[in-house]
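Sat 14:20. Reprocessing the chain from the morning session after the first attempt stalled halfway. Input below, unchanged.
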Amino acid sequence: MYALLYAALPLFVGTASVFAQSANGAVSTEVLKDLAPSGKLRAAINLGNSVLAQTDARTGQPKGVTPDLACELGRRLGVASLRLYYRPTVGARAPSYRSQAAAC
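Finished this time. Tokens:
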């Protein structure tokens, strides 16, 4: 459980920093440079906790709270693209990652 919390922490911290921006909704270039230096946002999704994320049986795309937060963060940042990297469990090794373009 703690591994999942630690894995999700950077996404939540990044989301909080974007939400804490000025009242007019503008995101500072510093925040954008830190979270998406190439103009593309990447988010790691763990499918091992079905409360936070699952695979949509119809589309094969990740769905749930964590992918929704990543998509909203990308929208608020105004990034050109968002890529979700996901794996079936916390213990899965890096080579087992599958990469899918998010359909936000």
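The beta strands are 40-46, 54-55, 62-63, 81-87, 98-101.
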